[in-house]
Amino acid sequence: MDHLLGLLRVRVVRGVSLAFRDATGSDPYVVVRMGGQVIPFPFLSPHVLSKQKLKTSVKKHNVNPVWNEDLTLTVSDPLLPVKIRVYDKDTFSRDDKMGDAEIDIVPFIEAVKMNLSDIPNGTIIRTTNPNRHNCLAEESAIVWKDGKVVQDIIVRLRNVESGELELQLLWVDIPGAPGF
Length: 180
Prior knowledge:
Blueprint: E1 6-16, E2 28-34, E3 39-40, E4 49-50, E5 53-55, E6 66-75, E7 82-88, E8 96-103, H1 106-113, E9 123-128, E10 140-145, E11 148-156, E12 164-172
Family: Belongs to the plant CAR protein family.
Main location: membrane
GO molecular function: GTPase activator activity; lipid binding; metal ion binding
């Protein structure tokens, strides 16, 4: 198993024009994955494990939900994409798929690796453009903000008739972790 490099906080901000899956709209929630490995957190009790599959709360009857929820993934392989799926929560049947997306975090990780402590707050480090590998709906800037590397992202969901998600990535160093 690779060593732990740090944490990637994925803030799921909101969904826009998500697909209707029920007569009254949808009851969406978001699942965020990375890799699928099981990694023990060395700084927590031994029985706490990260399965690298995290989800938001369910927003009832809403195709434009606002979550503003933080999901934190451990990063041991920076080449793995972040995988996102949106589902409609159903009570008596399997949850319906409402689209998916992948985010290539390599440009973000490259920005994290730079020595940025001396640059002004709000400086754009680099810009990522939409391509076949990242599901971006539009250009996205990676910014140095309040001593952290931050990226606001809008992803267009695939395998569905409509829908976008607004997300924010933020890198969190772990004290004592080898990092980059």
